C-alpha cells in the first residue's frame, strides 16, 4: 500500500470515529434534554396537585427558598406568603376553586435554567373555568431537581359573556347598611346602553353626611375582567378588580387618599338573597397602617 493510500485510510477511520462519537454525544444531549423537559413538567404537575390538596409542605418543597410570585396586577409575594395564603386564605370561600395548569412551551435556557409558559384556570361549579390567565415561570435545577424560582401571572384571558355585568344584576336597586354609629346609603343603576353600573353612595352619622361618592363598574377589555373606579367627596380615588368565587364577589381595591397615602383592601360581597348582602372588608391598609376587618349587613330598601 502506497503512502497516500495509508494516509487516506487513516483519515477515513478517524472521520468515522468522529462521526460515531459525535452522534453518540448528540444522542446523549438529546436524551438529557428530554429528561430535563420531563422533570420540568413533573414539577409543574406536582405543584398543581399540591395546590389542589392544600398541601403547604409539598408546595414549599417545589420552590427555591427565596422564590417569588407576581400576580397579574404586578404585586410581588415571597413564596412563604403564597404558602400561607393557601392554608389560611384571606378570601373566605367555602370551597376553594380547583387549579388547572396547562403547559404550552418549555424552553431550556441553560442546563440549569428553564422557562415555562402556559395558562392556568380556576375551575368552579360544574367544572367551569371562572378565571383564566397566562403565566410565565422560571425553574432552576438544584441537586438534580427542577424547582420553581419565579412565577409571573400575566393578563387574564377569560372570555366574557355577551354582557359580563349580567352576573351583577343583583346589585341594582337602593340599599342601606349600618356600620359603627353610621349608615351607608347607596343606589345602583345601569348606565345608558347598559355597559356600566353606576353606584352612588352616602355615609351618614347622627343624620349628618360624612362622605359621599360615585363608583363606576364595567368590563375592562384590556385586562379582560370586571373593574370598578371610585371617586369620593373627600378627594380619594382608586379602582377595584372583581372576581367571582362560588357565590362571593372578591374585589381587590387599590387607591389613594387626597393627602397621597395609599389605601388597599379586599372587599367580599356575598348575596344572601335578593334583599340582603353581606359585605366584608379584609386586609385594610391606609398608608403603612393596618386597619381592623369590618363586616356590614346591607339590606334592600323597599319602594314606598
Question: What's the topology here?
Answer:
Layout: H1 3-53, H2 56-61, E1 63-70, E2 76-78, H3 79-87, E3 98-110, E4 113-123, E5 129-142, E6 145-156, E7 173-179, E8 182-190, E9 196-205, E10 208-220, E11 225-232, E12 237-245, E13 248-256, E14 262-273, E15 276-286, E16 289-291, E17 294-300
Parallel strand pairs: 1-6
Antiparallel strand pairs: 1-2, 3-4, 4-5, 5-6, 7-8, 7-17, 8-9, 9-10, 10-11, 11-12, 12-13, 13-14, 14-15, 15-16, 15-17
Task: Please state the CA-atom Rg, rounded to the nearest Å.
Answer: 28 Å
What is the chain-wise order of helices and strands? HHEEHEEEEEEEEEEEEEEE
Low-confidence stretches: 3-31, 86-94
CATH topology of the largest domain: Nuclear Transport Factor 2, Chain: A
Mind explaining what this structure looks like?
The strands form 2 sheets. A 10-stranded antiparallel barrel has the order 7-8-9-10-11-12-13-14-15-17. It has 2 domains: 3-156, Nuclear Transport Factor 2, Chain: A (Roll), CATH 3.10.450.50; 164-300, Beta Barrel (Lipocalin), CATH 2.40.128.20. The protein has 304 residues and is an alpha+beta fold. The chain contains 3 helices and 17 strands.
Structural descriptors:
6-stranded mixed sheet; 304 residues; Nuclear Transport Factor 2, Chain: A; 17 strands; alpha+beta; 2 domains; 10-stranded antiparallel beta barrel; 3 helices; Lipocalin
Amino acid at each position: 500500500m502506497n503512502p497516500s493510500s495509508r494516509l487516506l485510510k487513516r483519515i477515513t477511520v478517524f472521520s468515522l470515529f468522529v462521526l460515531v462519537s459525535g452522534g453518540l454525544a448528540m444522542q446523549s444531549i438529546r436524551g438529557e434534554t428530554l429528561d430535563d423537559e420531563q422533570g420540568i413538567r413533573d414539577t409543574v404537575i406536582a405543584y398543581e396537585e399540591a395546590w389542589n390538596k392544600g398541601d403547604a409542605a409539598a408546595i414549599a418543597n417545589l420552590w427555591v427558598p427565596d422564590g417569588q410570585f407576581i400576580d397579574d396586577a404586578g404585586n410581588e409575594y415571597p413564596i412563604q406568603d403564597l404558602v400561607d395564603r393557601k392554608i389560611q386564605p384571606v378570601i373566605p370561600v367555602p370551597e376553594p376553586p380547583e387549579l388547572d395548569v396547562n403547559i404550552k412551551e418549555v424552553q431550556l435556557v441553560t442546563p440549569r435554567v428553564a422557562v415555562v409558559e402556559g395558562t392556568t384556570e380556576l375551575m368552579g361549579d360544574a367544572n367551569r373555568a371562572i378565571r383564566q390567565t397566562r403565566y410565565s415561570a422560571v425553574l432552576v435545577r438544584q441537586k438534580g431537581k427542577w424547582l420553581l424560582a419565579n412565577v409571573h401571572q400575566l393578563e387574564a384571558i377569560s372570555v366574557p359573556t355577551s354582557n359580563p355585568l349580567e352576573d351583577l344584576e343583583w346589585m341594582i336597586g337602593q340599599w342601606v347598611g349600618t356600620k359603627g354609629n353610621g349608615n351607608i346609603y347607596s343606589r345602583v343603576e345601569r348606565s345608558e346602553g347598559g355597559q356600566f353600573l353606576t353606584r352612588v353612595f352616602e355615609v351618614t352619622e347622627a343624620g349628618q353626611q360624612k362622605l359621599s361618592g360615585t363608583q363606576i363598574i364595567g368590563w375592562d377589555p384590556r385586562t379582560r375582567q370586571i373593574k370598578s373606579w371610585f371617586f369620593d367627596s373627600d378627594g380619594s380615588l382608586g379602582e377595584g378588580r372583581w372576581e367571582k368565587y362560588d357565590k362571593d364577589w372578591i374585589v381587590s381595591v387599590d387607591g389613594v387618599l387626597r393627602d397621597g397615602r395609599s389605601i388597599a383592601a379586599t372587599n367580599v360581597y356575598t348575596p344572601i338573597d335578593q334583599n340582603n348582602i353581606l359585605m366584608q372588608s379584609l386586609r385594610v391598609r391606609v398608608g403603612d397602617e393596618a386597619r381592623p376587618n369590618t363586616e356590614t349587613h346591607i339590606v334592600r330598601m323597599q319602594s314606598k
